[in-house]
């Protein structure tokens, strides 16, 4: 399966919010004073890694302030090696975007339908592996609960990390419009999901109207809320599974609550999680490094202390280590409980992480 963060290099992320920064997060900043930041790494384990290499790598992570790793694939060797160096080892799982051939062939009816009536089972939007399950189908929920249960029952897995836990991107960033030859100054029906019979019938039972009878469904606040709640229901049921194993559940999400709701129908401030990792990739939104602080502030404000926020930073967006240092400091000073980086960061990046953490603690 294509790596989550290699896909992000040409990401289908949405247009940045133009909101002013929120105020009044002194409570969250004061909490940051009392607790040392907890940093994370997203990575895909390489079966060629040796035990010696892993012991050295994960020791370096811990010394730099990393306290947990999100592994994109199951590798007992990597999980146990990380745990041996005092790191939490969590399984990173693709959730609603599931393009396995076995699943596509056995249950094409589980996949989301766009407003033109096309299924992403056989006509995926944008890229071939964009195959989105419909969150309204009970069978989909049960399938995902079984997946999470099978992961968390392993004794070397400390927690579950959800990714692609949303609808398909209905709006792309403006700098990708030319790449795909589309104009998305308005929502287009071929990228607007899900209009399957189950979604329509559930919406009608809830609001008394068939969504196809609404002249402008893209402007219907009830229809948006219905889809937010469909994903919320998936997440919060998976959280119950994680809780039954007494293991934490986290998620990778779009950078701010406003962007997430508008562009991918993702309402992450209403999820029952133990932590959140918004992908605050400022370069994708044509923003300067300072925007990292704005995005963290918005997320922390709306979470209101429910669970910690770890700012996901995309290393190629930074011109140099000095800029990365600034981005980490901004995230921590604006209320993030830590940051999350992708890949196997080299020693100079780990040194920057460590020094930025110290700087943020000294200046709060």
Structure, explained:
The structure is a single chain. The protein is α/β, with parallel strands linked by helices and 364 residues long. The chain has helices at 4-8, 26-34, 51-63, 76-84, 101-106, 138-152, 177-180, 197-207, 221-244, 257-264, 291-303, 321-333, 347-363, and strands spanning 39-43, 66-71, 88-94, 159-163, 249-253, 275-278, 310-313, 338-342. β5, α10 and β6 (275-278) form a beta-alpha-beta unit. An 8-stranded parallel β-sheet has the order 6-5-4-3-2-1-8-7. The model is unreliable at 1-33 (pLDDT under 50). It contains 13 helices and 8 strands. α6 runs parallel beside α9 (221-244).
Strand content: 5-15%
Strand/helix succession: HHEHEHEHHEHHHEHEHEHEH
Tell me roughly what share of residues is in helical segments: 40-55%
Alpha plus pi helix count: 13
**Uncertain stretches:** 1-33
Helical/strand content category: alpha/beta
Overall spatial form: globular
pLDDT average, as an integer?
Answer: 90
**Spatial arrangement of strands, main beta sheet:** 6-5-4-3-2-1-8-7
Instruction: Report the sheet with the most strands, covering strand number, pairing sense and barrel closure.
Output: 8 strands, parallel
Radius of gyration: 20 Å
For the secondary structure, the number of strands is: 8
Distance between the termini: 41 Å
Which descriptors apply to this entry?
eight-stranded parallel β-sheet, alpha/beta, disordered N terminus, 364 residues, 40% helix
Summarize the model shown:
This protein has 364 residues and is an alpha/beta fold. It has helices spanning 4-8, 26-34, 51-63, 76-84, 101-106, 138-152, 177-180, 197-207, 221-244, 257-264, 291-303, 321-333, 347-363, and strands spanning 39-43, 66-71, 88-94, 159-163, 249-253, 275-278, 310-313, 338-342.
């Amino acid at each position: 399966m294509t790596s989550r963060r290699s896909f992000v290099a040409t990401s289908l992320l949405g247009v940045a919010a133009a909101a002013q920064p929120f105020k009044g997060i002194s409570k969250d900043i004061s909490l940051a004073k009392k607790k040392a930041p907890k940093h994370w790494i997203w990575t895909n384990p390489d079966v060629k890694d040796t035990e010696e290499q892993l012991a050295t790598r994960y020791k370096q992570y811990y010394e730099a302030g990393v306290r947990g790793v999100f592994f994109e694939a199951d590798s007992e060797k990597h999980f146990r090696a990380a745990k041996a160096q005092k790191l939490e080892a969590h399984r990173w799982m693709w959730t609603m975007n599931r393009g396995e051939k076995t699943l596509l062939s056995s249950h094409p009816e589980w996949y989301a339908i766009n407003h033109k009536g096309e299924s992403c089972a056989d006509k995926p939007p944008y890229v071939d592996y964009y195959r989105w399950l419909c969150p309204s189908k009970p069978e989909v929920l049960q399938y995902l609960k079984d997946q999470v249960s099978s992961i968390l029952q392993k004794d070397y897995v400390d927690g579950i990390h959800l990714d692609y836990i949303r609808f398909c991107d209905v709006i792309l960033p403006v700098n990708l419009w030319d790449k795909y030859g589309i104009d998305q100054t308005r929502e287009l029906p071929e990228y607007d999901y899900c209009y399957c019979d189950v979604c329509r019938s559930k919406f009608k039972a809830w609001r008394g109207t068939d969504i196809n009878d609404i002249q402008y469904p893209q402007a219907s606040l009830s229809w948006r809320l219905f889809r937010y709640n469909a994903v919320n229901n998936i997440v919060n049921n998976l959280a119950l599974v994680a809780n039954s194993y007494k293991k934490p559940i986290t998620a990778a999400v779009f950078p701010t609550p406003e962007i997430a709701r508008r562009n991918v129908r993702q309402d992450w401030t209403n999820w029952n999680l133990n932590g959140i990792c918004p992908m605050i990739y400022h370069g994708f939104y044509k923003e300067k490094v300072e925007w990292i602080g704005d995005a963290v502030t918005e997320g922390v404000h709306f979470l209101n202390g429910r669970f910690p926020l770890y700012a996901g930073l995309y290393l190629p967006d930074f011109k140099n280590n000095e800029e990365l240092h600034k981005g980490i400091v901004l995230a921590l000073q604006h209320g993030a409980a830590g940051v999350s980086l992708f890949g196997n960061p080299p020693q100079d990046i780990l040194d920057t992480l460590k020094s930025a953490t110290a700087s943020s603690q000294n200046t709060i």
